[in-house]
Amino acid sequence: MKEQDLVRRLQDRDETAMEEFLRRFTPLMGYIIAPILPGTHDREECISETAMTVWEKVGSYDPEKGSWTTWLTAVTRNQALNRARKLRREDSTELTPDIPSPEPTPEERVIQQERQAALVEALQYLGDRERMLFYRKYYYRQPTAQIAAELGMTERAVEGRLYRIKQKLRKRLGGDGYA
Amino acid sequence: MRKEPMTEREFDLLLETSLPEAPPSDVTKWVNPWRTAMDRILLGFAFQGITLHFLLLQYILPAIGSVLLVLGFRSLRRENLWFRLCYVISLFNLALTLVTLVANATIYGGAVREYLLGYTIPLLGVDLCQYLFFWLGFRAVRKKAGLAPGAASAFALLVWNAIICWLGLLEVGNMPLLIGGIILLLYICILRCLWTLSTQLDEAGYAVQAAPVRVEDGLLVKAFAGVLALGLVVGYAFFDSYPMEWTPAVETGHQEIRDHLVDLGMPAQVAEDLTEEDLLTCAEATEVLVDQEIYPPESNREEVRWEGSRPYTVTLHEAEEELRITHVAVRLDEDTWKILHHFCWLVDPGVRGTESIQFWPAYRNSEGWEKVGDWSGQLLYDRNGQTYGAPFCRMEEESYSGVSMFGDAYTATDVFAEFSLPGEGQNHRGYASYSIRECQEGWVVDAWMNYTHPLSQIQFPVQTAAEHEKSGAWNNYRFETIQTALQFWVEEGIAKQF
Description:
By secondary structure, chain A is mainly α. Chain A is built from 8 helices and no strands. The termini of chain A are far apart. Chains A and B meet through α2, α4, α5, α6 and α7 of A and α1, α2, α4 and α10 of B.
């Protein structure tokens, strides 16, 4: 079954399509979730939750705005990050600087949007390979060892390249005072 | 108020939280442990499967293909046994490619190619095994991803290569253009199918676990290129000519024999170069026939001009005289002659490398003359008033196969003298000699020599002058062959030249 047919059937609320979806896209979901959630049990639960979210929100998927893989990646990652935040909150009753509040204020939301725009613009100045490396590290949250293995690099080389990318971004985003 | 600089951790956190919810499509397309490896493997197979005989692409593309296959399978080597075996084979092929390419920069390239030709079937078998293991590995990945294990495109690639190997073993080299075109089209179709399948399998590829590496892909490519470049440089610098044993020539004496031969008509330069053994053979000589030629032939062309009604002859030196070839026949007794083929460079020989003289001796294809004794000869050159000599690197009778100008395959047996000239000194020269005895009257003495000299220092693959001669190729930018002969007959005991 072609990908677009599967998506159409999901959008038409065809329950048999869900089985096909799980069979085909569990590896993708697992791949995205694994670096964010270390526990096997959490990962399995996250995959189930993501599948539910896909079932609920598949109607909002618009092929003209991006590929199915991109949409599914975003949904899966959000689900994993939410679960990771939830797990951290359960571990600690107080919010630490590492754990941003899940519900930003309107002012924070505006600042966040400005930051996103600035960062996306800055990323345009990176080469394709650098941009790919950056997304693996900061979007997919992949560990250095995984990035190194998949790109045929040593961990040290990955760290060195990431450091240089960050230096470039710091400069592009206005130096140390970016915050 | 001045802001405090952000710490690394703060900056990392900021980057993580500042990214948009959905990544760009090109990022999601390439962030997959399978995609890069698979693209490399398919491109590697494509480069290895197509042979284009121009601009050295028949060497460059398979070499790139070998590297891509190593990089591709290296990443997948821990995924399953089949991909691991593919990786081992790709490493073997890469090493073989390296050895062959470096050997091609030396005069031993032909020998290496001939040696490998003896292992054609095992090597083709190894290649086919790689396609077989690739298909099995492909199936295993599909199975792991919960998909049906069929991988028809990968299997088609295996079958296609098996057919090509079979055609190769049947020596179906010159396929009609139409069939060749169909096969090429079929190959492109198979690769296209495989490519599509690989894209469809991207979701399965997320289950693949890339293997960590100790040496980076880029470094591996650079190392291969570096070793190859070094090998080529060393090959061209040190192995582009034969190892020759030049030693200061020793005075042979027997001046009375030389004088005797010169009196009979032998050019003094030839008499001076004879070995003691050959001199002694000629001690009782009764007659000498000489045929001398200068190359290029236009160098001393004579032209008749007129001054009023009086004709006079001028010698035109249109080009510098480069090579002098002297054929000498020395009558040793009533029926026995010694044939000498002597050459002498009158200028610097120019390009060094390998030289070859192919002889078609007088006893070849002749019922009137038979060989007596063995071939002899030597090479000489002068430097700072000292003469140096060396034996030929190789001078022996050899059977070989070639293709005539009409495209027919043939087998011949000739005598070849192979050698290299030193990059110093002057008067580079030498001669080869053999004796014949008349066993039947009325047969012409027809003694030929084909002297082949290199014209280009850089060749790839490096071909020796002898290999060029044996291939039956015409003169080209790489080699030039001068063909010349001594011809005479004996009638009622009197030798007559043509």
